[in-house]
Amino acid sequence: MSGHWQHQREGGNRFWLGVLVTASLRLGHGFMRRFLYLISLYYFLRRGAERRASREYLTRLFGSPASFRQVFKHIHYFATTMLDRIYLLAHGERDFDIEVNGLEQLEHYIAQGRGVLLVGSHQGSFEVLRTLAARCPEVPLRVLLDKQKTPAITELLEALAPEVGAAVIDVSQGGAAMTLAMAETCRTGGMVALLADRGRAHETLRHVDFLGAPAPFPIGPWLLASTLQVPVILCFGLYRGGRRYTLSFELFAEHVDIPRESRHQALDVILHRYAQRLEHYARLEPYNWFNFYDFWQQDAMQSEAVDARTLHQV
Questions:
Q1: Residue 242, class by beta-carbon neighbours within 10 Å (0-12 exposed, 13-18 middle, 19+ buried)?
Q2: Between vectors from CA 85 to CA 83 and to CA 91, what angle results, nearest 5°?
Q3: At 123, is the secondary structure helix, strand, or coil?
Q4: Which of 45, 111, 205, 278 is buried most deeply by CB count within 10 Å?
Q5: pLDDT tens readout for residues 92-106
Q6: Alpha helix (H) ranges present in the chain?
Q7: Model-wide pTM > 0.90
């Protein structure tokens, strides 16, 4: 079992990550894409927990045991999107072919001036979404990220585009400050983007069906959506091979209502709809799912951690 995702170690230290970023910018995209196969092979051989988590996910998705070749392809897709983050931050979308679907619908809600909540997942590249800021420079875009999860790579990548780093709302700083920053961005007609498929330690989760089995999803993003009362747009930046990405927007709700008297039922309906869309895109691009831990057992591991602390305190 690969453990809770927040306890997984970062893939690399500052020195080697710095070497990778410098080499990528100096040697160019084409050379680094070829070199990336060696990096992918290294992680395929060294990161057994992530390899097993990949195999479990792909087996659920395909309905038959995933091969080592499929698992390697999955890891290589992840490595490719990580490499592409460097070029997206340094050069924008100039080196890529990015197809955008649903932009007119997003623009419609932006034009209302109430703000928009963009809800994504750990599928494909969230960095592709940030290219939207270059297309709509007059509309602020702030992104919720946990900077403490991967501090080394976050620091290096934000150095490539300081304005992008400045727009991050760090979720590790606490709920009140985060909520106020989101509300202020929406009040000025901006966009706030977050990922809603991964629960942080001690976050409340609820089960809904995903790829044929109950899976735990966090309720926090949807409680925030209910508080903000702005249009909620799902967004997915899927890697399509080569230098091609597809960025898709689709309306999830004009606003999210979670009545106190039927809170659990309302959350179940919302999470079920969200999980259905994740499954749709997972089947569309199977190797874009980048949750390399035991996703279906996430809540059980959180409970075990709480029990261990309780015993220690007795």
A1: exposed
A2: 110
A3: strand
A4: 278
A5: 888 899 999 999 999
A6: 14-27, 29-46, 48-62, 68-91, 103-110, 127-135, 151-160, 162-166, 175-187, 220-228, 263-284, 298-313
A7: no
